[in-house]
Amino acid sequence: MTLLSRAGRTLFWLLLGALVLISAGLYNGFPLVTSDSGTYLNSAVNLTVPDDRPVTYGLWVLLTGLRGTLWLVIFAQGLLLAGLLWRCITVFAPRLQHPAARLALLAGVTWLTGVSWYCSQLMPDIFTAVGVLALALLLLKRSALPEQVLLLAVLLLAALMHSSNLLTFLLTVLGVGAVGWQQGLFRRQVLHRSTWLLTLLVTLAGWGILPLLHARMGGGFELSKASSAFLMARLSESGVLEKFLQANCGPQNQYRLCEFRDKLPNDAITFMWDANSPLNQTGGWNANRPEYQQIIGQVLRSPRYYPLLVSESVQATLRQLTHIGHGDGLTAFRENTNPYWKVGEYAPYELKEYMSSMQNRSQLDFKDLNERVYGAHLLALLVLGALLLGPWRARIAPAAVGLVLVCGAAVVSNALVTGSLANVLDRLQGRVAWLLPWACLLLLAQYLPRWTPWGAQLLARDEQPQQTRMQE
């Protein structure tokens, strides 16, 4: 088989994989949207930097949708994810050679975890997992230079898609490096220092590249204009803001928030988005940014708040780790909603499809899916524990153990970042939680047959000399 025909065959299977990964969108009848999708579509249509999120996903929508169809946007997401998953099978489950078997494994993780419901959204959430997969392939495999450059580009793209990804990827790289150093993974060449440093530099570079991109597009040199408002909302939910205002509201140090110190919202979402919240009654995030930045700075410089901050961060992280359900935010967005208006602006000829989708007819039900997802995640954790801590540990390649380490570090880092700095939401954790079941499936595909009586007999047969085998 020539190189060209092999490439064409691989592309065919990847296209099928992409269709599997956007099957939720196909089932829905249109790409899925949330309340935030309209903001991203607006940045694609008008090339403006949103106040509360990066412009990068808007550029992705503009480039992949070709300003004609939103189906191409999620198909491009599916194709990118399929390529990374396919490469993971090649690296971590090489025994699975036949393309149909690989596609079946990809379909299996889609059915078990519901990842398609994230891949099919007009949202950047799927890029958190995309970046983690690229990171795993970079750290655990010595790739040729073209592949390494491509994976680094994917990692950087994923980091720029959402401001939380910048910190999540940085914590993941640092966490993997710390464990790798302590467990001797660098010494045993499971992790390579040069590649680890390169990924660290790329993740750090994103912190400068994103503000530069925003400045170039007229949005100012900053990650997000609303970051102080999000942090203040989190401080309000945790009780830190109330404690601060009680200590500092007086004739010598007045803040506009002081008049709300006895009626702060119970949760961060209400603080950010409710029309009657302190934030919105005092002019929004731009009007309050100087005051919020001053309060946040004082809190961070005051050790007396540290025990409460640490306690709330640990508690939010643990809560976030359990929030892996689907359907969060996937309600109907019909006439007079931001997604409706922006879909009409970007792809007016698809507005009828959008309105007749199952989502906009309120016909999506996630109860059965969520029950299956919770069961799949629990089973995956039990299986991974048995594989890595049981008598079969010595048979598993160090790179496969490293894959579990990278995925686990990313899942915890994502929970820490989103839970501590934003909100505890199913959507924010579900976007990466499926990576551990995926790692579990790869290990089973590669190693499970070896432990069965049939597998042992097959291996013994394979080890016989060719001449003996022919005599049989």
TrEMBL record:
Q: What is this protein called?
A: Glycosyltransferase RgtA/B/C/D-like domain-containing protein
Organism equals Hymenobacter perfusus
DNA-binding found in the keyword field: no
The organism's place on the tree of life at top rank: Bacteria
Q: Which UniProt keywords apply?
A: Membrane, Transmembrane, Transmembrane helix
Q: Which residues cross the membrane?
A: 12-30, 69-88, 100-118, 124-140, 149-176, 196-215, 373-394, 400-425, 432-449
